[in-house]
Amino acid sequence: MSLMDAAREVREKAYAPYSKFKVGAALRAEDGQVYVGCNVENVAYPEGTCAEAGAIAAMCAAGARRIVEVAVIGDSAHPVTPCGGCRQKIAEFAAPEVTVTMGTMAGLSVTMTVAELLPGAFGPGHMETE
Ligand code: THU
Fold first, then answer.
1. Nearest-atom index, ligand 1, CA of 82
2. In terms of CATH, what superfamily is 3-127?
Protein backbone atom coordinates (compact mmCIF):
# COMPACT_ATOMS: atom_id res chain seq x y z
CA MET A 1 0.00 0.00 0.00
CA SER A 2 1.31 3.47 -0.84
CA LEU A 3 1.86 6.01 1.91
CA MET A 4 -0.99 8.12 0.49
CA ASP A 5 -3.31 5.10 0.52
CA ALA A 6 -2.46 4.53 4.18
CA ALA A 7 -3.32 8.18 4.89
CA ARG A 8 -6.54 7.84 2.90
CA GLU A 9 -7.53 4.74 4.87
CA VAL A 10 -6.90 6.22 8.33
CA ARG A 11 -8.68 9.44 7.35
CA GLU A 12 -11.95 7.51 7.57
CA LYS A 13 -11.33 7.05 11.30
CA ALA A 14 -10.96 10.78 11.98
CA TYR A 15 -13.13 12.24 14.75
CA ALA A 16 -14.15 15.60 13.32
CA PRO A 17 -17.74 16.35 14.39
CA TYR A 18 -17.08 20.10 14.66
CA SER A 19 -15.17 20.99 11.50
CA LYS A 20 -16.50 17.99 9.53
CA PHE A 21 -13.07 18.04 7.89
CA LYS A 22 -11.44 14.64 8.18
CA VAL A 23 -7.68 14.43 7.71
CA GLY A 24 -5.41 11.40 7.50
CA ALA A 25 -1.64 11.36 7.79
CA ALA A 26 0.87 8.59 7.23
CA LEU A 27 4.59 8.70 7.71
CA ARG A 28 7.32 6.25 6.95
CA ALA A 29 9.99 6.06 9.61
CA GLU A 30 13.58 4.99 9.13
CA ASP A 31 12.69 1.59 10.59
CA GLY A 32 10.64 1.09 7.40
CA GLN A 33 7.35 1.03 9.27
CA VAL A 34 4.36 3.19 8.38
CA TYR A 35 2.65 5.09 11.20
CA VAL A 36 -0.75 6.68 10.74
CA GLY A 37 -2.87 9.27 12.48
CA CYS A 38 -6.14 11.12 12.06
CA ASN A 39 -7.46 14.38 13.50
CA VAL A 40 -9.27 14.02 16.82
CA GLU A 41 -11.38 17.05 17.69
CA ASN A 42 -12.81 18.10 21.04
CA VAL A 43 -15.78 20.19 22.12
CA ALA A 44 -13.18 22.47 23.73
CA TYR A 45 -11.91 23.32 20.28
CA PRO A 46 -8.22 24.08 21.02
CA GLU A 47 -7.86 20.62 22.54
CA GLY A 48 -8.29 18.95 19.17
CA THR A 49 -5.27 17.30 17.62
CA CYS A 50 -4.17 17.13 13.99
CA ALA A 51 -3.66 13.97 11.96
CA GLU A 52 0.07 14.61 11.71
CA ALA A 53 0.41 14.87 15.50
CA GLY A 54 -1.33 11.52 15.87
CA ALA A 55 0.98 9.83 13.39
CA ILE A 56 4.05 11.29 15.09
CA ALA A 57 2.82 10.10 18.49
CA ALA A 58 2.26 6.58 17.09
CA MET A 59 5.80 6.58 15.67
CA CYS A 60 7.35 7.66 18.96
CA ALA A 61 5.26 5.18 20.94
CA ALA A 62 6.65 2.41 18.72
CA GLY A 63 10.18 3.55 19.50
CA ALA A 64 11.01 5.10 16.12
CA ARG A 65 12.38 8.62 15.94
CA ARG A 66 13.19 9.61 12.35
CA ILE A 67 10.70 10.33 9.57
CA VAL A 68 11.75 9.65 5.97
CA GLU A 69 8.49 10.44 4.12
CA VAL A 70 5.09 12.00 4.90
CA ALA A 71 1.64 11.91 3.24
CA VAL A 72 -1.40 13.94 4.28
CA ILE A 73 -4.89 13.85 2.78
CA GLY A 74 -8.14 15.75 3.19
CA ASP A 75 -11.34 16.11 1.21
CA SER A 76 -10.66 19.55 -0.21
CA ALA A 77 -10.39 21.04 -3.69
CA HIS A 78 -6.75 21.89 -3.10
CA PRO A 79 -4.23 19.63 -1.35
CA VAL A 80 -4.33 20.10 2.43
CA THR A 81 -1.15 21.56 3.86
CA PRO A 82 0.01 20.87 7.41
CA CYS A 83 -0.74 23.70 9.85
CA GLY A 84 2.14 25.74 11.25
CA GLY A 85 2.31 23.74 14.45
CA CYS A 86 2.45 20.46 12.56
CA ARG A 87 5.22 21.77 10.31
CA GLN A 88 7.28 22.36 13.44
CA LYS A 89 6.33 18.92 14.81
CA ILE A 90 7.37 17.22 11.55
CA ALA A 91 10.63 19.20 11.47
CA GLU A 92 11.51 17.83 14.91
CA PHE A 93 11.82 14.32 13.45
CA ALA A 94 12.56 14.87 9.74
CA ALA A 95 15.54 16.18 7.80
CA PRO A 96 14.95 19.35 5.73
CA GLU A 97 14.94 17.33 2.47
CA VAL A 98 12.21 14.90 3.59
CA THR A 99 9.17 15.15 1.33
CA VAL A 100 5.61 15.84 2.42
CA THR A 101 3.00 14.85 -0.17
CA MET A 102 -0.34 16.57 0.29
CA GLY A 103 -3.31 14.99 -1.42
CA THR A 104 -7.00 15.38 -2.13
CA MET A 105 -9.62 12.65 -2.26
CA ALA A 106 -9.97 13.39 -5.98
CA GLY A 107 -6.36 12.41 -6.53
CA LEU A 108 -4.58 15.76 -6.82
CA SER A 109 -1.28 15.94 -5.03
CA VAL A 110 1.53 18.36 -4.36
CA THR A 111 4.90 17.42 -2.90
CA MET A 112 7.10 19.81 -0.96
CA THR A 113 10.10 19.35 1.31
CA VAL A 114 10.11 20.04 5.03
CA ALA A 115 12.47 22.97 4.37
CA GLU A 116 10.04 24.45 1.84
CA LEU A 117 7.14 24.10 4.26
CA LEU A 118 9.03 25.60 7.19
CA PRO A 119 11.78 27.95 5.99
CA GLY A 120 13.87 29.43 8.77
CA ALA A 121 12.72 26.74 11.19
CA PHE A 122 13.51 27.25 14.84
CA GLY A 123 16.04 24.59 15.80
CA PRO A 124 18.41 23.63 18.62
CA GLY A 125 21.05 26.00 17.22
CA HIS A 126 18.87 28.98 18.05
CA MET A 127 19.24 28.27 21.75
CA GLU A 128 23.01 28.55 21.69
CA THR A 129 24.41 31.71 23.26
CA GLU A 130 27.83 31.68 21.55
N1 THU B 1 -6.14 19.37 10.34
C2 THU B 1 -5.28 18.31 10.38
O3 THU B 1 -5.53 17.32 11.07
N4 THU B 1 -4.14 18.40 9.65
C5 THU B 1 -3.85 19.40 8.77
O6 THU B 1 -2.82 19.33 8.11
C7 THU B 1 -4.76 20.54 8.64
C8 THU B 1 -5.89 20.58 9.61
C9 THU B 1 -7.40 19.25 11.08
C10 THU B 1 -7.53 20.07 12.33
C11 THU B 1 -9.04 20.17 12.47
O12 THU B 1 -9.51 19.01 13.14
C13 THU B 1 -9.54 20.15 11.04
O14 THU B 1 -8.48 19.65 10.26
C15 THU B 1 -9.97 21.50 10.53
O16 THU B 1 -8.98 22.45 10.72
1. 6
2. Cytidine Deaminase, domain 2 (3.40.140.10)
- Residue with CA closest to ligand 1 atom 4: 50
Q: Where are the domains of the chain?
A: 3-127
Looking at 30, 41, 47, 52, which residue is catalytic?
Answer: 52
Rounded to the nearest 5 degrees, what angle is found at the Cα of 99, between the Cα atoms of 93 and 102? 110
For 21-66, write each residue's pLDDT tens digit.
999 999 999 999 999 999 999 999 999 999 999 999 999 999 999 9
∠ at Cα 28 (40, 100), nearest 5°? 75
Residue among 4, 27, 18 nearest 74 (CA) = 4
2-20 pLDDT, tens digit per residue, is 999 999 999 999 999 999 9
